[in-house]
Amino acid sequence: EKVLLVDDEKEFTQVLSERMEARGLQVVTADNGPNALRKAEEESFDAIILDIRMPGMDGIETLRRLLKINPNLQVIMLTGQATVKAGIEATKLGAMDFLEKPADIKQLMEKIKQAKTNKMLLVEKENEEKIKDILENKGW
């Protein structure tokens, strides 16, 4: 699985990315929202792990913009100061899940696997629709 980890806390990002890489994941990091958006436009990810509280563009705004780039992105929100309001807002916007820091690595790995499965199902559905459209329009 390929994961984008977005958090302004460099030490946290380094430790978590090392733990995920030790479990076989390919991890790309971004230290803020604009960098995350650029990387999401350049590469494909099975999951995006996104901190809610970041200076400048926060996680909620980054989530909004990520989903404009690709509404099928699987985003898991992380925060050290979890609030019900932020969790509800993130979920309404399209976040797949919401976890509190420090993230339990087993739980996070399960969420990443779930994200990859969700992504594969969405891609498969899109491909089926494209094939159906081609067959209908080509008259085969």
What do these coordinates show?
- This protein is an alpha/beta fold and 140 residues long.
- The N and C termini lie far apart (37 Å).
- The chain has a five-stranded parallel beta sheet with strand order 2-1-3-4-5, with helices on both faces.
- Helix 2 (33-42) runs parallel beside helix 3 and helix 3 (59-69) packs parallel to helix 4 (84-93).
- Strand 3 (47-51), helix 3 (59-69) and strand 4 (75-79) form a beta-alpha-beta unit.
- Helices cover 55% and strands 17% of the residues.
- The longest helix is centred in the C-terminal third of the chain and has 34 residues, at 105-138.
- The protein is globular and about 55 Å long.
- The amount of helix comes to 55-70%
CA(first)-CA(last) distance: 37 Å
> Which strand-content bin applies to the residues?
15-25%
The secondary-structure element order is: EHEHEHEHEH
Outline, from the CA principal axes?
A: globular
Report the C-alpha radius of gyration, rounded. Answer: 16 Å
Helix-strand makeup class: alpha/beta
User: How would you write the strand order of the largest sheet?
Assistant: 2-1-3-4-5
Please outline the major beta sheet.
5 strands, parallel
Low confidence ranges: none
**What is the strand tally?**
5
Helix tally?
Answer: 5
Instruction: Tell me, rounded to a whole number, the average pLDDT.
Output: 90
In summary, what is this structure?
The chain has 5 helices and 5 strands, in the order E-H-E-H-E-H-E-H-E-H. It is of the alpha/beta class.
Protein topology:
Layout (H helix, E strand, L loop, with lengths): L1 E5 L3 H12 L4 E5 L2 H10 L4 E5 L7 H11 L5 E5 L4 H10 L3 E4 L4 H34 L2
Parallel strand pairs: 1-2, 1-3, 3-4, 4-5
Helix pairs in contact: 2-3, 3-4
